[in-house]
Write a structure and sequence with these properties.
Layout: E1 23-25, E2 29-30, H1 33-43, H2 48-51, H3 53-58, H4 68-80, E3 90-98, E4 107-113, E5 116-119, E6 126-136, E7 142-153
Length: 159
């Protein structure tokens, strides 16, 4: 898959540039059978409901669905394609819930916001943000949601 040609109009943010309540909506992502197959190949997860049409049709889903962790991975990738983005930092972890299946031909996007932030106690020059995030399908349904905790560089000279 070719790398998207994204032209950002805003610079990457230091921790100090963020404000609680800041929000962003990402570009969209089309879930295709080929992308689900590629995710299965990448991860080694060939669970039949994801890769076998006949099996999936007989399941309670009635069709092939994307891996739950594929949805979370797509959500993270969509955040990086958004205009609201931070300088490279460190992911501290996720809490994440899978609410609804993601089907082939669903088009998803994320909405996220700065839910909380604090200066790091152990790493001067860094701050921590918590980003409540929702993965939303074309029908406006939240299919997955959770929070991503990130450690972000602070602006030099501000700490």
């Amino acid at each position: 898959m070719p790398k998207p040609d994204i032209q950002f109009t805003t610079p990457e943010k230091y921790w100090d540039d963020a404000k609680v309540g800041d929000e962003c909506t990402s570009p969209t992502y089309l879930v295709t059978a080929e992308r689900i197959d590629a995710y299965a190949e990448l991860t080694g997860d060939f669970t039949p409901v994801h890769v076998d049409e006949d099996y999936a049709r007989k399941s309670h889903f009635g069709q092939r669905v994307a891996h739950g962790l594929m949805g979370q991975s797509v959500a993270d990738g969509l955040k990086t394609q958004s205009e609201y983005r931070f300088l490279p930092g460190m992911s501290l972890g996720w809490t994440w819930d899978f609410l609804l299946p993601i089907a082939i031909n669903d088009t998803v996007h994320v909405k996220f916001r700065v839910g909380s932030m604090r200066a790091s106690k152990s790493k001067p020059g860094w701050g921590i943000v918590v980003l409540p995030t929702e993965l939303i399908n074309q029908d406006g349904q939240v299919v997955q949601k959770g929070e991503h905790r990130l450690m972000i560089p602070r602006r030099p000279g501000t700490y």
